[in-house]
Amino acid sequence: MTNIGIMVCGHGSRDEDAVTEFQSVADGIRARLPQYDVDSGFLEFATPIIRERLEALRERGNKRIIAIPGMLFAAGHVKNDLPSVINTYAAQHPELDITYGRDLGMDMKLIRAAGDRVREAMEAAGDHVSPEETLLVVVGRGASDPDANSNISKVCRLLWEGLGFGWAEVAYSGVTFPLVEPGLRHAAKLGYKRIIVFPYFLFTGILVRRIYHYADVVAADHPEIEFVKASYLNDHPLVLDAFADRVNEALEGANNMNCLNCKYREQVLGFEVEVGLPQESHHHHVEGIGTGKISDEDFDPTAHVHQGHDHGHDHDHEHSHEHSHDHHHDGDHDHAHHPYPHADHPLGPRSMVKK
Q1: How far is the C-alpha of 171 from the C-alpha of 181, rounded, in Å?
Q2: What is the DSSP pairing of strand 97-100 with strand 64-69?
Q3: Which residues, including other chains, have CB under 8 Å from residue 279's CB and lie 6 or more apart?
Q4: Per the domain annotation, does 219 fall within a domain?
């Protein structure tokens, strides 16, 4: 084994199943890169936290560390929160060479994996409805970053055209619009016999469960339409291959993150005031607070929701703030969030609240 460590950085979730699935992906990356010392940690909620596992890699004698975001697209977590954690640790240990890798991003391996998940759902549902009579709804996480959100539209188009569906639509689980329920209700008006709901997520969690729940809610109002719920990406072999590619890119110096349309660098339409904002994390207050089994029965999604931000922190999230504000959790810290310009949009951007 070399003296190179790989740090797979997960978001973290209070959902034990989501944490287990992330660890399964980390194990798959380790199996693909046996020559390196592969470890993993979480930004918030779950343990171990990233800083602890970076320390473990250092203590095991690794002189170079490649930190890879375990996330699909570069929004706030990839652009701000993870770099803040990693740069802080790097500043405390100048003897280490720490390279920050890029997100999975738009990658044909991921599109092929997504295609497999959609095909699996179609095959399970049966061939009595043709692709031309089927509408695909791709659901993204949703972010306060329009560049990240636009990637879901590209994923949707590639699946739509690649699999030959009659129509396709995009929806989001929170922060931006349209949210899942209005998106599905719109799709139901278009006259297709089958609607496939595909969460373009890496792991399970509360949001994926809510997506499926809203599919059931809208399906109950439209018995003439067959609603089919496709699985999320999880540990598909091509997902693991894409993660291994990100490690190799960072090692070889070809670590090219697409910053062409980043709202912090360019005057993206509607987000002009965010150019040049400081890079900082606001997740330190929920590092490692723990996970558990979460069911629809014992989760109250209406608890402590205000201004578009769920202070119960039930999310695998990009924070959904309607207004810039300072807010307090159990500590004495403050952190402010820039206002989302379309906070009052009628189709979002509050995160989904289960009815």
Answers
A1: 9
A2: parallel
A3: 79, 80, 83, 84, 87, 264
A4: yes
- Distance between first and last Cα of the chain: 52
Q: If you average pLDDT over every residue of the chain, what do you get?
A: 84
In a domain, 128, yes or no: yes
d(CA 6, CA 24): 15
- Domain assignment of residue 169, yes or no: yes
324/309 Cα distance (integer angstroms): 11
Q: Which of 133-137, 254-258, 265-269, 332-336 shows the lowest per-residue confidence on average (mean pLDDT)? A: 332-336
When divided into structural domains, the chain yields a total of: 1
Give the domain CATH number at 218: 3.40.50.1400
Token pair of 52 as six digits: 């602890």
pLDDT value of position 279? 56
Structure pTM? 0.79
DSSP-H helix ranges across 126-259: 146-163, 180-188, 206-221, 237-252
- Cα separation, 134 vs 166, in Å, equals 6
- Backbone angle region of 283, left / alpha / beta, with phi > 0 → left and psi within -120 to 50 → alpha: alpha
Spatial distance between the Cα atoms of 163 and 228, rounded to a whole number of angstroms? 16
pLDDT at 300 (0 to 100) = 43
Work out the pLDDT band at 310, boundaries 50, 70, 90. very low
